Amino acid sequence: MTEDSQALMDETLSLQPFELHYGEALPDAKIAFRLMGNPEGPVVAVLGGISAHRIVTGAPGEGWAITRAALAHERSQSQREDSIADAVRRLVSIAQDNAGTGRGESADSSDVRRRIGAFFARAQVSDLLGFKALLKSAQGLESVGDSPVSKVVFTETNLDIATYALELQGPRGVLDAEDPNVVDAGRWQEAFLYARGFTISAGSNEIMRNLISERALKLPRDPAK
Questions:
Q1: For FRET with 169, which of 44, 126, 134, 221 sits at 20 to 30 Å CA-CA?
Q2: What angle (nearest 5°) sits at the alpha carbon of residue 131, between those of residues 134 and 75?
Q3: DSSP state, 5?
Q4: pLDDT digits (tens, 9 = 90+) for 21-61
């Protein structure tokens, strides 16, 4: 274990009782976990193993269906922490602050206004897709393409917004959070790094596109090479 990956916290979560989806319950379930890495975005490592006398969640043969459903919820919820429409509004603030300073492109430019307007439209689509998937899931009407489409649209829009935010900052875009001249306390630099990770987490966008094409649109698989 390196210094960067030392444990931040060891915890045991007790669930009494732990209700299973088919109506039964475990009377005394405990889950041991450890938070690792960056405190702002730690990795959760679950500790322990599977008992030989385990109680199985779901009926035999349903494992993949349960796993896919859990991943679908993770993908559809990956964007719920912060609306990217709000991120676009923060882009507007950067562009307005640049006016007359020469520090970077400003809201005086028609090209800047056009690009920010396009980002806002994409952000609205992303937010509405996530809301649609959530409503369909609550009613048991979700389809196989809902979560992958929401995930791809959100993560790629989010990455493009964060990238453009650094472009708008001009030379200040390379500053870190400790520099007194950094914009917004360095939140955009951190957002840019996390945005790339979002395109990989919960299933990379390349895999999501395969799910959309093969399972949702029923297109033929790529021929084996």
A1: 126
A2: 60
A3: G
A4: 556 776 766 777 777 666 766 666 665 544 445 556 666 66
